[in-house]
């Protein structure tokens, strides 16, 4: 029996048998099984598309009086046809170093893992057109990258490309924690009106409405705390006026300025 | 501890009286690509689940029962193996894959922790039966590329692909 050492997935191939008489040819592997009745001494042709799942196969030629066996490989096609692209996270704060990761596995048209090295291009594009690009060679069919989230909020496009094959994901970059949180206090009738400046992160992105800002007023004999959601980028609240009170503002773990209130 | 669905593969293997010898498992130190550190616990769990997957694979192919693949295989590999079992059954063929040894190395742990790739030099015996008549038994050596992904309670095999060693 004569057969190639390997065949590319999906390609035609042939097996030459020797001797005379009838026999049965088996091609056995976890990926596929073929069986043919053959006339010994003739060549058995397998047309393109007969064997397409990559793997290690055993070929058995079993006749009435003798059995021959030989192993051969079906290798993945060399041309990539599909990328399995895992990108994380789908949402993250701006300006996070190594915050975005991407990994790919490269497959051929029959979904066999292509294990020979290939160049994968990872690109992260912001809405303003800024591009981070990394070119990485696959090893054992896999490649990965890490990228920084940029300073601008918005929906970034994260793409992995190999040749003409492209897989894209969207990564939402949201503003970070408030930065330079500042409030002002004014007398309003008998009470006190507290109002922040527009709340932004350290890159100037507006912190989203709904973010909680906490105002605390500490005075002799007590303390009052009020949580207020941002509306149109500003938090505002009316509180009782106490002479000598210390008023502070915070959002999460970020502290803002402090005011000592004198009537 | 073995998970209930996986026990099914092993019980079926014992009940069907096929050789159920534990394969020798050797684990090479990882040559890891990827920024994510791989804890020993994760590495052990992945290897344990993969080696158990061979038991499911072996039993499923010997019995021509694709349902036995379910606890251990997922996605493309599950579909592909299931299709092969259908082909075997329609041709009256059964294949008994008995793994003898595994020489394993983890080569990739994806940054998100959602996949592990390992390479396994496997030695196994393959017995082919056509309408219950043994046609041949061969000792095989192959290099498997394996991609595992986490499921609810275990790692499952998503890519199961071999070449000659």
Strand order of the largest sheet of chain A: 1-7-6-3-4
What is the tally of beta strands of chain A?
22
Global mean pLDDT of chain A = 94
Class of chain B in CATH? Answer: Alpha Beta
User: What integer value in Å does the Rg of chain A equal?
Assistant: 34 Å
- Rg for CA atoms of chain B: 16 Å
Low-confidence stretches of chain A: none
Shape category of chain B: globular
Order of helices and strands of chain B: HEHHEEEE
Beta-strand content of chain B: 35-45%
Helix % of chain A is under 10%
Counted by DSSP, the helix tally of chain A is 0
**Architecture of chain B, CATH level 2?**
Roll
Task: Please outline the major beta sheet of chain B.
Answer: 5 strands, mixed
What oligomerization state is this entry in? heterodimer
For the record, what is the CATH homologous superfamily label of the largest domain in chain A? Macroglobulin (MG2) domain
Percent of residues in helices of chain B: 25-40%
Using CB atoms under 8 Å apart, which protein chain pair has the greatest interface? A-B, 43 and 41 residues
């Amino acid at each position: 029996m004569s057969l190639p050492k390997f065949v590319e997935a999906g390609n035609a191939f042939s097996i030459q048998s020797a001797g005379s008489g009838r026999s049965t040819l088996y091609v056995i592997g976890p990926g596929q099984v073929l069986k043919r009745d053959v006339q010994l001494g003739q060549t058995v042709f397998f047309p393109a598309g007969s064997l397409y799942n990559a793997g290690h196969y055993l070929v058995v030629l079993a006749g009435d009086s003798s059995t021959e066996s030989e192993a051969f490989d079906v290798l993945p096609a060399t041309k990539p046809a599909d990328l399995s692209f895992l990108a994380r996270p789908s949402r993250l704060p701006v300006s996070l170093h190594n915050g975005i990761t991407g990994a790919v596995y490269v497959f051929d048209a029959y979904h066999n893992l292509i294990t020979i090295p290939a160049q994968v291009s990872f690109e992260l594009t912001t809405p303003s057109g800024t591009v981070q690009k990394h070119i990485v060679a696959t090893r054992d069919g896999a490649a990965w990258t890490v990228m920084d989230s940029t300073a601008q909020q918005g929906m970034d496009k994260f793409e992995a490309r190999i040749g003409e094959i492209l897989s894209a994901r969207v990564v939402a970059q949201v503003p970070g924690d408030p930065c330079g949180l500042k409030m002002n206090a004014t007398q309003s009738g008998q009470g006190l009106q507290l109002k922040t400046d527009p709340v932004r992160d350290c890159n100037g992105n507006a912190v989203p409405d709904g973010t909680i800002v906490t105002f605390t007023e500490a005075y002799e004999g007590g303390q009052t705390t009020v949580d207020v959601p941002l509306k149109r980028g500003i938090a505002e609240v009316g509180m009782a006026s106490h002479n000598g009170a210390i008023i502070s503002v915070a959002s999460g773990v970020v502290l803002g300025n402090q005011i000592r209130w004198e009537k | 501890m073995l998970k209930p669905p996986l026990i099914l593969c092993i019980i079926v293997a014992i009940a069907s009286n096929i050789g159920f010898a534990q394969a020798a498992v050797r684990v090479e130190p990882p040559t890891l690509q990827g920024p994510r550190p791989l804890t020993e616990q994760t590495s052990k769990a992945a290897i344990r689940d993969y080696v158990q997957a061979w038991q499911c694979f072996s039993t499923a192919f010997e019995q021509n029962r694709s349902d036995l693949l379910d606890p251990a295989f997922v996605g493309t590999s599950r579909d592909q193996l299931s299709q092969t079992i259908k082909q075997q059954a329609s041709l009256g063929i059964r294949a008994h894959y008995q793994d003898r040894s595994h020489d394993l190395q983890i080569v990739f742990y994806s940054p998100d922790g959602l996949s592990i790739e390992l390479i396994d030099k496997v030695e196994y015996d393959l017995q082919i039966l056509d309408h219950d008549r043994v046609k041949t038994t061969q000792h095989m050596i192959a290099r498997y590329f394996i991609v595992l992904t986490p499921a609810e309670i275990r790692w499952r095999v998503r890519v199961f692909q071999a070449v000659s060693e």
